[in-house]
Amino acid sequence: MNVLDSIGSTSLVRLRKVVPAGSADLLVKLEGENPTGSMKDRMALAVISRAEADGRLRPGGTVVEYTGGSTGTSLAFVAAAKGYRIRIVTSDAFSREKRDHMAALGAELTLVPSEGSLTTKKLILDMIAAAREIAREPGTFFTNQLENADAIAGYVPLAEELLEQTGGEIDAFAHSVGTAASLRGIAAVLKGRRPGLRIVAVEPAESSVLLGSPAGPHKIEGVGVGYVPPLWEPSLVDEVLAVATEEAKEMTRRLAREEALFAGTSTGANVVAALRVAARLGAGATVATLACDTGLKYLSTDVYRRS
Length: 307
Known about the structure:
Elements: E1 12-14, E2 25-30, H1 40-53, E3 62-66, H2 70-82, E4 85-91, H3 96-104, E5 108-112, H4 121-134, E6 140-142, H5 150-153, H6 156-166, E7 172-176, H7 181-193, E8 198-204, E9 239-243, H8 245-259, H9 265-281, E10 286-291
Parallel strand pairs: 2-10, 3-4, 3-6, 4-5, 7-8, 7-10, 8-9
Antiparallel strand pairs: 1-2
């Protein structure tokens, strides 16, 4: 068995204590069980495998990406397993654990300074520009996560697992938007099987661009890039919900204390939004969402660290 075969087949659990009486059941898929502790392992394998298949990435080549950390860690994991050099553009806006994990897997890091450790549109654009510059070098493959539709295919198995684990009995699915590849890949499969299923996109309230508000700084890592991502497909989405950073952080802490579910801030945002939907649908319905990654990636941040 290859180490890459350990990607996927993650557990599905029902939340018990944070869900108020009278709400729909809330199920969470534990994507932190993937090898690097993140759902991004799925897209990394799809993106690199497809690039190998059509010759964009050749033996001895170098993978290049800009990332808040989880995508970079996943790409570094797949690159290490397959024997590729990898160069990552990231920033101090993202947790030290993510940067250290990437480096441990062999990634060569270029750091772009942030404004007060916040995710902003300017930071994302600066990171993209730095990665494009590196990708001009010979023998490089720029994975370009915000525009690479190959990532969508990586999440098809996740949706199929979710349908199998629930017997297809899902009434709504809520998930946060970064590149939009995961929501798009999952939503297409779920809608194809259950056309009436409600798809809810989640974004930071401070940068609620999908709802038409101006971009702004926030601290929900891995989501909310500050503009509508190229892979966004509104026809698959029934509703967009905005969740504030502090609300997401507090739910992340509650999940750890009350549900023993140790995850990051995007998971907190997912659960906040899913709870709103569950309250609306009421008892007897089922809402699903994702625990995007493990809380081990955030121990040095103010989500968990006590000063």
